[in-house]
Design brief:
Order of helices and strands of chain A: HHEHEHEHEHEEHEHEHHHEHHEEH
Strand order of the largest sheet of chain A: 1-3-2-4-6-5-10-11-9-7-8
Helix content of chain B: 55-70%
Radius of gyration of chain A: 20 Å
Strand content of chain A: 5-15%
Order of helices and strands of chain B: HHH
Number of strands of chain A: 11
Number of helices of chain A: 14
Oligomer: heterodimer
Structural class of chain B: mainly alpha
Distance between the termini of chain B: 43 Å
Strand content of chain B: under 5%
Structural class of chain A: alpha/beta
Helix content of chain A: 40-55%
Shape of chain A: globular
Number of helices of chain B: 3
Largest sheet of chain A: 11 strands, mixed
Distance between the termini of chain A: 16 Å
Shape of chain B: elongated
Radius of gyration of chain B: 16 Å
Largest interface: A-B, 31 and 32 residues
Largest sheet of chain B: none
Chain lengths: ~450, ~60
Amino acid sequence: MTDLSLVDLSYALQRGDLSAVDVLEQCLARIAERDGDLHAFIDTHAEDARAEAAERDKARRNGLPVGPLHGVPVAIKDNINVAGWATTAHSHAIVTERANEDARVVANLRRAGAVILGKTALHEYATGGPSFDLPWPPARNPWDPSRHPGGSSSGSGVAVAAGMVPAALGTDTAGSVRHPATACGIVGLKPGYDVISRRGVFPLAQTLDHVGVLARDVAGCALVYDACREPGAAAVSATLSRSLHGLRIGVIEGFSGDADAEILAAFRRQLTLLKDMGACLEVVDLPPLADFADCTRLIIEAESYAIHRSTLQSKPKAFGMRTRAKVLAGAFIDASTYLQAQKFRRHLIGLMEAALAPLDAVVCISSHAFPARIDDDAMIDQTYNRQARTVFNLTGHPAIAIPVGIASCGLPLGIQVAGHHGGEAMICTIGHMLQQLVGR
Amino acid sequence: MNDSVGRHIAQRLADLELGDATTPAIREYLTAALIRQRDLEARMAHILEPDDEPALAFIWESER
């Protein structure tokens, strides 16, 4: 199973060449083998998943209609509700002991036939960072378990990269799907704002929160993305293979900052590949990355403080130290500053829209640095400042992180493709075509 | 500047009954965060025209 692409796996399950129960058991065996060291899962809810897989097999045997994800296991970040399961947000201050209903996106996945396999680790409340003062240990990078796997959707990234599950859901408020994707060498798609429902997803900052998908390749990611959307939405996964000839793709060199030389070289290699495929590259000028990043951070601080203030007052020690620090920063932002930041945000969105207007998509770097050691708080904090992902949370445009090879240090390399609102098909196509050349 | 920021942080946390939530390391983080917030406020004031639109325009527009 772990050798099959997600698309091939889904075909095999739909045809009955593989059973959902067998696929699930292979995932559970892989989890048993690797998760003792990697800590991707908070709880696999294995028995519930087994029952759901058996139902999927029975439905196919009985000739009932099968969806595009029939029998495909999908893991869920533990700030997203699954009916009957706790939503912990990886915190002592858990959200709920038992969710009454599935988040809308989980319900959509089940409608497409997915088997929901467990809840994955995250940074506490999708903020904080890898912490050792929480009820569960932080997830670790499968390429080097001494290193951070990116976050906050850490467990989702690790579970996919380590072959424990073909796909996982994450949330992305400031890059939290694309960061683990880049750090773990997989694909992470953050669609446009509110393209995937946030109902039943515990918020970090409502005006920036997105639900996203992690998978090993773009085609698989697109298949799951299609299933996450409301019925009737146009399928992205059906249109991935097409010529890039004549596409106008903007290159945001200014977001490369002080990127590691090898990361920069990998980015430039992708530009050459895009040109070789016939795309027309154009330089895009935008304000400094710091303007986007600082504006995003201030809005997160203000909105997350509004959510957690009463719990911070009543039981502050229910939160880990990192989360407390990050959320408390919002206590010092007054309403006029918050509104000014939203106005600044609109100014930056306008500049991004103007830059995108003549283009089909833009490309830029994802991380400026390789994942830090997981116990090095200072370096981890630095890597959060050395990236170009939060830009697209602030503007709400869709963005995808794709792996583009392995560096000499043995860690993955990645880039981002971003596009217009409604441009998920375009960015997935560009990512898919690059992946065909680079390899998975 | 750090001293005045530190005093402001202590007073604000006390006013909000959040003093118990902090440690020296958290107060150090908050000092850096507050300096960063003030720096952004200054940059925003420099970049944004003061009277080009009401500050709440984005909310009114989003509710149309």
